């Protein structure tokens, strides 16, 4: 009887174990089945929420960035100097850099650029090609305000003097005057020491 009890005891333990295993299995399957639809449902709603604002936010940006908002800030940045037909282009060409500033006739800046702003670094900033790119960038900014005629004032001994003037002419501006305004001392200050090359 003891031997029979031992097999019965394992059988009984197996039976409740089997029952315990069988009963939770459907319960576990049911929560998984319930949880599975619940998890994608929030994802779908989250995606739907994300998708709905994105087109609404994206649509005005695309419309505004196309033409309107790109031109309007230029006019606002110029502080009321829109529709400027004639101006002055100041070209400062040094041994290390070239800076082009375009103003209206009163001296208010319409557009400016330098070799560093265009993206040149080191010794390439003082080249003639850099001066050409600088003049094109500055003149595009100024032409956004309606600039057509330009007086050119060139200052400094750099390599970008002529190439900047040629670039201004090539982009479509009418050059009325080209003047050299490099400051020349009348033996006023002591000059710097000589360069050793």
Structure description:
With 197 residues, this protein is α/β, with parallel strands linked by helices. The protein has seven helices and five strands. The protein has helices at residues 2-22, 24-38, 40-51, 53-77, 115-118, 128-143, 161-170; strands spanning 86-93, 98-104, 109-114, 149-155, 174-180. It has a five-stranded mixed β-sheet.
Outline of this structure?
The chain is of the alpha/beta class and 197 residues long.
Observed structural traits:
single chain; 197 residues; alpha/beta; 5-stranded mixed beta sheet
Assembly classification: single chain
Please report the total strand number as a whole number. Answer: 5
Largest sheet report: 5 strands, mixed
Rg computed from alpha carbons, rounded to a whole number of angstroms: 38 Å
Number of helices, where a helix is a run of at least 4 consecutive DSSP H or I residues: 7
The separation of the N and C termini measures 115 Å
Compute the average pLDDT.
75
The global form is globular
Structural class by sheet pairing and helices: alpha/beta
Task: Give the helices and strands as they follow along the chain.
Answer: HHHHEEEHHEHE
Please give the share of residues in helix.
40-55%
* Widest beta sheet: strand line-up: 3-2-1-4-5
Strand content: 15-25%
Uncertain runs with pLDDT below 50, 5 residues or more? 53-78
């Amino acid at each position: 009887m003891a031997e029979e009890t031992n097999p019965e005891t394992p059988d009984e333990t197996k039976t409740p174990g089997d029952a315990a295993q069988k009963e939770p299995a459907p319960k576990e399957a049911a929560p998984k089945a319930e949880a599975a639809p619940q998890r994608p449902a929030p994802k779908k709603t989250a995606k739907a929420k994300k998708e709905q604002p994105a087109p609404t936010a994206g649509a005005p940006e695309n419309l505004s960035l196309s033409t309107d908002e790109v031109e309007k800030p230029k006019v606002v940045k110029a502080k009321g100097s829109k529709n400027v037909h004639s101006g002055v282009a100041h070209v400062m060409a040094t041994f290390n850099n070239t800076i082009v500033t375009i103003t209206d006739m009163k001296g208010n800046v319409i557009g400016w650029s330098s070799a560093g702003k265009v993206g040149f670094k080191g010794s390439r900033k003082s080249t003639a090609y850099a001066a050409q790119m600088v003049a094109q960038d500055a003149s595009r900014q100024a032409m956004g305000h309606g600039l057509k005629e330009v007086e050119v004032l060139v200052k400094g001994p750099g390599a970008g003097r002529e190439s900047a003037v040629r670039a201004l002419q090539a982009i479509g501006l009418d050059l009325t005057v080209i003047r050299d305004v490099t400051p020349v001392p009348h033996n006023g200050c002591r000059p710097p020491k000589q360069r050793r090359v």
